[in-house]
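pasting for ref
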Amino acid sequence: MLTFDTIVIGAGPAGLAASLYLKRAGIEVLLIDKDAPGGQMLKTSKIENYLGFKSINGAELALNMFNHVKSNDIPFEFSEVISVDKKGSGFVVKTPDKHFSCKHVVIATGRMPNKLHLPDEDKIQGVSYCAVCDGSFYKNKIVGVVGGGNSAYTNALYLSDLCEQVYIFVRGEVKAEEELINRVRNRDNIVVLKNTQIIKLISENNKLKGVNLADERKLKLEGLFIAIGGKPKINFIKNIELEKEYIKVDSKMRTSLKGVYACGDVIYKDYYQIATAIGDGAVAALSIKAGD
């Protein structure tokens, strides 16, 4: 069993920041993630509100962050954490083929995308949760984006450069930044449909052909991108206090389990941004260093 002072689970901006701050504080840290480092940044075509970069591709920013972490000789385990168990004064972190022991755990696993929960949503080809990943398959086609926040509007702008027509289905309130709203408004091939609910996916031979709306309209679509937030990925840890399905932390990122910290999109907070995730990760690491 390999032993570290702290194990950080999740390599999005919060986990990367926590790892870097811990290492620079002289704390032996292991970073674990089953996916490519970067988290939600990998699914973002363009980031324009991260200080120091007027505009940068999400995957490029993720790579820059991970290279920064690697340059500090922080070990990275490419695997899925299946359990975190208390043992004595520390913890055992298990992956499918390895066990690690540590004094502290930092949970930074982010969120899994929410679904529409419509029949056959997981089976129909044409339903996606990542416009950057799958947008190129719908060049010159008609697509839709579900959501009213920054992610939905950013996805729509990205898709409008590829697709013939893009619909944005806003189910409730528009929460996107004014800058994004104005850009969408100035795109001739983007149509915003407010207070619109998709009630059925229309398919043929398992391929998306359109949608039925609650107001009885039908629209032809070949691609539908879901951008309505997500739920925290915390199934590997038990007996931890939650708030609205998110991990509850205090101002020092401490959870209800002594020795376990959480940061980024996995915690309950008001704002979910790259900048706030990095701040969370830094606070968690500094709290561990201080012995809090």
